[in-house]
Every structure is written in C-alpha cells, then in structure tokens.
Design goal:
Blueprint (H helix, E strand, L loop, with lengths): L4 H5 L14 H13 L8 E2 L1 H8 L3 H13 L3 E4 L3 E4 L4 H20 L8 H16 L3 H17 L4 H18 L5 H20 L3 H32 L1
Antiparallel strand pairs: 1-3, 2-3
Helix pairs in contact: 2-4, 2-8, 5-7, 5-8, 5-10, 6-7, 6-9, 7-8, 7-9, 9-10
Length: 236
C-alpha cells in the first residue's frame, strides 16, 4: 500500500508556520499547499501518526484538518482504512477546466494597463524558466500553477483567491496522470511568456484569447491521458 511516510518527513520545516496558536485551518493550509506542490500523490494514505508528529499537532486537530480537506474534495475517508488523497476522474478534469476558463479568462480580460499583480505573474514565469533550466519538472509544474494563481488573483477578489487555491490543489492531483511531466509542462512555458507580454502591454483581450486556447489545449491533453490510462487498465 502506498503511504505518505517520506512526504511527511518534509513537513517538519513547516512546523514554524503554525506558531503557538495552531489551528486545524492552518494545518489544512499546509497540507493543501503540499498537495498543490505535488508532494502527496493521488491514492496515498495519510498517516495521522507521521503527519501529526511532523507538524507537532494533536490527533484531533489533524482529524479536523483532514475533514476540511475532505470537504474540499482533496481527501477521502474510507471506513476502517483511513484517509487517502483523492483520485480524480475525467469528469473532474472537465469541471475544473470549466471553472478555470470562467475565472482566469475574466480576470485577464479586464486588464488595460500593467496591473498591480503583474510582478507576481512575472515571478511565476521566471520561476518556470529556472525550473526548466535545472530540469526540475515537478517544480516547473508548480511554477505553472502559481502562474495561473497569479492570473486569477488579477481579479482583486480574496474570495476568488480562496476558491482557486482549492481548484489548483485538485489540478495538481490531475497532473499526476501524465506519465511524462516534462512533455506536459514544458510546452506551456513559452505560452506563459506570451500571455505575460500581453498583460505587460495592457492587452487584456489579447491575453484572454491566448489563455482560452491554452486552457482548451491543456484540458484536451489531460482528457486524452485519462482515456489512454483507462484503455491500458482494460488491456492489462
């Protein structure tokens, strides 16, 4: 059975984020970030003992954090088996991209001058460039997610930011279906640069046009990957 022992070991560094007033919400924030950065793979069982010790929190606090993330569709609880990172379906992929197209395209469409959040968008692109140079493909995936988080944040809405944190964490679970993360993520880095240029020029309409095609292509690629995996499971 897949476990999260190795991933849990890296959580000690996050203990300082909790402070003295540790709460289930803060634990959930940490675990959500870990999911969105690819540390917990779909189907992994989360050990209360290992994660609780790593973060220095009580079992009750951790269970409440698990409950919050289950409500966000990142985790599932299986009776007498424990808590697992959720395995998403192709229907989830389609729905996630439906939300992304509405939120992200709307956010960039309104740009008419370089927005206040431009530096955050540019940094995500630069982080992607660095990950590519170092051939760190998981980090490139994380940089791509942060790029899209920054695009959504151009809306200026704290509620949209909160919504999209969950959407992008789910999206990372979808990305695991790609057998070759380099093949999937690298091709979109060039397109990130193109969208960044349109935003820098204050051309929100042009940025939206590029982004709409980008999201359609990514959705199609992921749906095809799910179909290929399903066919392999049947033939195997």
């Amino acid at each position: 059975m897949i476990t999260a022992d190795d991933s849990a070991q890296g959580l000690e560094a996050d203990r300082g984020l909790l402070g003295r007033t540790s709460t289930a919400e803060r634990v959930a924030d940490i675990l959500r970030t870990r999911v969105s950065e690819g540390y917990f793979r779909p189907g992994v069982r989360l050990s209360e003992h290992d994660i609780g010790n790593a973060l220095g929190v009580s079992r009750n606090t951790l269970r409440e954090a698990f409950r919050l993330l289950t409500h966000e569709r990142l985790l599932v609880h299986e009776l007498n088996r424990g808590v697992f990172v959720r395995v998403l379906t192709v229907e989830d992929v389609v729905d996630l991209y439906r939300v992304r197209k509405v939120v992200e395209c709307s956010a960039v469409r309104s740009v008419t001058t370089p927005p206040a959040g431009f530096a955050r968008v540019a940094k995500a692109v630069a982080d992607g460039d660095q990950a590519e140079q170092l051939e760190q493909w998981q980090e490139l995936g994380t940089a791509n997610i942060r790029f899209h988080q920054a695009l959504a944040a151009l809306s200026g809405s704290a509620r949209i930011d909160e919504l999209m944190q969950g959407i992008f964490a789910e999206l990372r679970l979808v990305f695991h279906v790609m057998a070759d993360p380099r093949r999937f993520h690298e091709r979109y880095l060039v397109r990130n640069h193109e969208i960044l240029e349109r935003i820098a020029a204050g051309d929100g309409v042009g940025a939206e046009a590029l982004l709409a095609v980008y999201l359609d292509d990514a959705e199609r690629q992921l749906v095809e990957a799910y179909a290929e995996r399903a066919a392999a499971e049947v033939s195997g």
